[in-house]
Amino acid sequence: MNRYCFCLQVRPDRLDEYVERHRDVWPDMQAALRDSGWHNYSLFLRDDGLLIGYVESADLEAAQKAMAATDVNTRWQAQMTEFFTGIDGRPPDESFLLLPEIFHLKEDPQ
């Protein structure tokens, strides 16, 4: 399983609404993510709008393509696009700035 970290920028004036939308992510969206190969997916949000995402996947590109083929993702991305800056009209899930992993503490080999 590979680890991926990405960032996006949420509009600072829309932070509260963005957080609220993620309190109850649609069950069919959550199922589609799981079925598409997204594991241990988390989002972290700084008070200036910097969004950091972490996900584990065997192949993130394949997982993204599988999600892009779902109707629920199309509906979700259409609603989420308005919350972001710097994505030039692309859906947020196609606008990730992937960050390179430079350190990972491995489990104790005992």
Automatic annotation (TrEMBL):
It comes from the Bacteria. Pfam families: rhaM (PF05336). Coiled coil: none annotated. Gene3D superfamilies: 3.30.70.100. One of its GO terms (biological process) is rhamnose catabolic process. GO terms for molecular function: racemase and epimerase activity, acting on carbohydrates and derivatives. This is L-rhamnose mutarotase. It comes from Kribbella speibonae.
